[in-house]
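Question thread 4412

I'm putting together a teaching handout and wanted feedback from people who do this every day. The idea is simple: show students a protein as raw sequence, then show them the structure tokens that encode its fold, then repeat with a second protein so they can compare. Below is the first pair exactly as I plan to print it.
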Amino acid sequence: MSVISIGVNHKTAPVEIREKLSFSDNSLPEALAKLLDQPVVLGCVIISTCNRTEIYAHVTDAESGIETIRSFLQHKSGVEAAMIKKYTYAFTQHNTARHLFRVAAGLDSMLLGETQILGQVRTAYQLAQKHNATDKVINTLFKHAITVGKRARSETGIDQHAVSISYAAVELAKQIFHDLTGRSVLVIGAGKMSELTAKHLVANGVSGVIVSNRSYDRAECLARQFGGRAVKFNELHHYLEAADIVISCTAATHYVVRASEVRGVLAEKTGKKIMMIDIAVPRDIDPAVGKLPGIKLYDIDDLQNVVDSNLMERKRAAIMAETIIEEVVEEFARWQGVQYVIPTITTLKKHGEEIKQRELARALGRLGQISEHDRKVIGSMANTIVNQLLHTPVTRLKEYALTEQGPVFQEALEKLFRLEDLGAPDKRTAAVQAARADEHDQQSELAVRASGQH
């Protein structure tokens, strides 16, 4: 048995392939059901976002599972099998856990450390749970992944450093004003960059939004998004006094904010502090404005320097996150390894017990009338022999179960003792038995706790 992952992302496949392999929210329940119909699949989760499609599955055999899921993707998408194999990546066992944990921590994202992916991982898992598509192994894998995603962010601060131009502007504004609550912004230009910057500022407490654009209709449209107001482009300098923050990003070939206009505002508002962000190329704001008292002027290069510096911080945080991930990969591997060998160990011990009881009955029958003391001595000796013989293979199997070679040693032990001929469960049944055993252990533990509380 193995956990596997097959998928594509922005690094491995072009958008025309990714879009064919993606799943809509409405199609996911049916897709999960079809995967579970495959005998090799014991449990699964599908993560489908704009940048990745990945299927995580607990399977009875890794090679067959990968082939089955790739075939499933081929039939779903209509993409040729050769192309599916070319563009999809596949992970097994510990590498599956490591990959999922890196995804949840934002280390595999287009934007290093982005936060949205953790919610997408959680949502995908919850949907699979809702439709009874997961089993104990998948549940444990994804619970570990969500924990890792949270730890990576809280312990390293990887998502605390702005790595987009629009959010870098917000970071600089916080440095100047500390608290943006109740501040006002004048947005000059109604393009995408202006909209994104205004959006981030509003999300961080800015309440007053004034928009000015050559097209008054577009200014009104953008202002409406933030509950603000639009002003005519040729009158925008009259509103500088109302702004704490000015964002300018137009296609003008000349300055739209001049030093003389800003100087007039400062003369009327003694002690006025204004932060100006010029994202345009060519620049919209006269550089001389930045020399005026009370004015903090940043251009696109200043913002890019912030982004570059923050990206380095995220890369340093990513190194710390990788350490957390390896720690949890090892923890999951230990848990997983023991789960897989429990049915084999149970069958081996049962086999030893049957041999002991059979041979003990035969020996005692031949001895005839002997004392109860002698019976106990002989029984104890038989127990000791069986236990000592089985101790080393059982202990070693548990040790090897924590390595990638665990399944190989498990299969070797089953063949050496011919356990498959002695009622050893098949892999699907073994997985169910392990789940039931785990559930029984949990219930027993809860009962012990409950009894101790009364």
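The second pair follows. I'd like the answer to focus on this one:
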Amino acid sequence: MPPPPVIRIPRDEQPTRDRTGTLDVPLKFLDQDYQELKKSCFTNNRKYVDEKFPLDSSSIDPKKKLGLDMEQIKWLRPSKIVADPQLIVNGVSRFDYSQGSYLGDCWFLASVGALTFQEDLMDQVMPVGQSFGEDYAGIFHFRFWRFGKWIDVVIDDKLPTIDGKLIFVHSKTSNEFWPALLEKAYAKVCGSYADMQAGLVSEALLDFTGGIYVHFETAKTSIDLWSLMNRAAKAKALMACGTFLGKTSANTELPNGIVQGHAYSVTGVYKVTCQEKPVQLVRVLNPWGKGEWTGDWSDKSSLWDKVSEKERSRCRVLANDGEFWMSMEDFTKNFEDVDICCLSPNFLDSSSECRWTSTCYKDSWVAGTTAGGCLNNKDSFWRNPQFRVRIEKLDKECSGQCPENILVSLMQNHEKRNRSEVSNYAIGFSVFAIPPEMKDVKLPDNFLYRKRPIEGSGNFVKSRQVMRFFKLEPGEYLIVPATFNPKDCAKFILSIFSKSESHRRNN
């Protein structure tokens, strides 16, 4: 049987994009139309009650994993919790909320903390014009990017409480409710509140932006991570980080104030001068809303007395609000990884001469045809979908800044409603060099039998997404995404970002 057709990716062409599922025309999640439902509420003089996210245990904890006494829980509208409910009080801030004690969704809230910095992105996720004012009907809507499509999610504003207090995320200002409503909308997408228990920050970062995502292990990357984070901050990227799990258990607070196995927001990247020497700093936020690093450059560190008054007043805040500064050296010792999500990949390179082009493809592994498994399966590996890409030679000005010139991201999607029921396959991809003499011809059926990959994603891992940022010499290449085991079936999105010159040269 011949191999599946190889897809050639032209340099300057993008696949035709259907406008359905864009921010302008988002898909209606569970076929619920916000405007029609709101109109119906006014017509019938009633407040909205969401039948597709019912006010019972199925929406909170269907498998009883959180240890909650469901008989104690009452679903209340904000007007039944406080006298003057507001969606937003004095703007949206990372300091507005604290994580609830019943749900381990720090990965989600760390992403929310990063999101609050970007007003435009916040307006995408939480469309403007919503309030508890004149047009209030007990209905709100939010937008998330899910597996290549933007969706519009409708909720009512009844929130789970015990003794009149919110049991999950809650605002520090008692009458502010945007964090609780945002969390409820995301819980609806995940299937229930309990389905948000534990996760990777990268999931929410992508779901808030639909942008490019990169992941770095702080101890293993050879990239100047602080400089890249600094560029990302200037590019208005969302950033978060995670601590090492440790030998005991997650959420154990160390003597230095760092919580093990915990997700944090990255809220600032800054350089100060201390005793005439530059010091690279990173600002981090604990989504608990309290609990901070106590080492060098923490709020009470004496090192702040050795910098200029201008820098000290700009950076130092003496408050137990969960946010703190630390040196890049301490950051890499205490945090295992960093996740960055941005609408444009241009922050990956410091050269203004370069831009990054992107191509996104949706495909699937189908049993019996395109689910060939990893390279260990020599008789079926060739069945996997194959994508052809060309890397061009760059000018010295463009190529010299950042040696890495390609980013490949692979995301799988099983399309199950309940997030906790999704069992991700071990996935990865391999990159094969195409000899120059074969760059303009159809590859023979046995091409993959005779070639060894020159690059790839590394070990196959059970994750929603894998990515790799690496260097390829100019030439033609074949990218083959695969599951570790043959016959594993799933849809996937393959995104390829490559560096190009942003300027035109005169002949």
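Top answer:
Good format. For the second protein you could add a caption like this: The CA atoms of residues 6 and 441 lie 11 Å apart. The chain is about 20% helix and 30% strand.
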